[in-house]
Amino acid sequence: MKIDNELVTKLAELSKLEFNATETERIKKDLQGIFDLVEKLKELNVDGVDPLIYMTEEKNVLRKDVAEGMVSKQDALLNAPQKDSDYFKVPKVIKK
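Request: output the structure for the sequence above.
Response:
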């Protein structure tokens, strides 16, 4: 696949990024290197090779989720910059 300015511009638009001319050239070179590597990998014979699902055989060791060190409502509101009798006051973030 040939990487050109049009492709980089489209990718930048989709990813909401902006690149100057120097960055565009560098990205073109990097993307071309990635595509060249993928093409090289396609040459490998992978018949009989199972897909790798996990990097190791180790399993996650999880702890029980136990609530500790409860804070009273009054203590939680002590350092609040704005508060009501029972609630934190915060700026409105959702517009109607």
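The radius of gyration is 27 Å.
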